Amino acid sequence: MPLYLEIIVCVLLLIGGIFLLVGSYGLARLPDIYMRLHSPTKASTLGITGVLIASMILHSYLQEFISIKELLITLFLLITAPVAANMIAKTAIHHEIKAKEKTRGKELINSMRNRDAPPE
Amino acid sequence: MRFFPMPFHSIMLFVVWLLLNNSLSAGQMVLAAFFAITIPWLVKDMRDEHPKIRRPWLAIRYVLMVMKDIVVANVEVALLIIGPIKKLQPGFVAVPINMSSELGITVLASTVSLTPGTVSAEVSKDKNWLYIHALHLGDEGALIKEIKSRYEAPIKEIFGC
């Protein structure tokens, strides 16, 4: 395998790994459930994409046949991640889980639970 | 059209199956054709009517723009997570939306979840409000304005709703 390809694959793996690490770190570090939702939906999509592109380059080289299924995995991830985040947020709202004290617009939680328009 | 109630979906299933298996062998082609015919036939009665994509070029441009925004969002959120947590000012925001189509609202909500610092949490029953949670809420009005002009307007144009 030529050196430049190895370097590209390594860099992509490293970037992906760093973003995944930061995503998991945020999950442990952020104070309430609503804020925790942000780190797995975002920081990790780029992380997974990086790892998958690295895999795509490596396998296209090894098989001498372009490997595109990683793109499909990324696409499925991009479709499912927001839906999962939305369902977790809904569940949290319906279980009346408290948001952090200083959260702005906390009064909106009530109208969200009833799926009403926000209070004037 | 009896064998292909959803021609576009059939083609997509065929291609996706071959891509997932990374092969063009005869056996996989037969299996792909089998799925492309039977799956649409099994699910054709479960379909809801959705608006068609009216402006395909705008849709492609929108996808590219969102992909760029996802990268930016990832970096931004990563920096916020590493940075001082005490300084974060989380908040809920109600964004007024006026879209009739459920598909449009779904696309908008998913985009909002994937892009800078916001996750969509709930949609009001009358479909006029999208509730979002922001990790770091600066100016509420500016955020609402950005979502409306940057994401809602093109979606409305793409689906013509």
UniProtKB/TrEMBL annotation, chain A:
A Pfam family the protein falls into: PhaG_MnhG_YufB
Molecular function, one GO term: sodium:proton antiporter activity
High-level lineage: Bacteria, Pseudomonadati, Pseudomonadota, Gammaproteobacteria, Oceanospirillales
Transmembrane segments: 6-28, 40-59, 71-89
Origin: domain of life: Bacteria
InterPro entries (alphabetical): PhaG_MnhG_YufB
Name by which UniProt lists this protein: Multisubunit potassium/proton antiporter PhaG subunit
PANTHER family cross-referenced by the UniProt entry: ANTIPORTER SUBUNIT MNHG2-RELATED (PTHR34703)
Repeat is among the record's keywords: no
Entry keyword set: Membrane, Transmembrane, Transmembrane helix
TrEMBL record, chain B:
Keywords assigned: Cell membrane, Membrane, Transmembrane, Transmembrane helix
Pfam families found in the cross-reference section: MNHE
GO molecular function: monoatomic cation transmembrane transporter activity
Membrane topology reported for the UniProt record: Multi-pass membrane protein
Subcellular location: Cell membrane
InterPro entries found in the cross-reference section: Cation_antiport_E
Annotated transmembrane regions: 56-82
Gene Ontology CC: plasma membrane
Taxonomic superkingdom: Bacteria
Similarity comment: Belongs to the CPA3 antiporters (TC 2.A.63) subunit E family.
The protein's name in its UniProt record: Multisubunit potassium/proton antiporter PhaE subunit
UniProt organism field: Marinomonas pollencensis
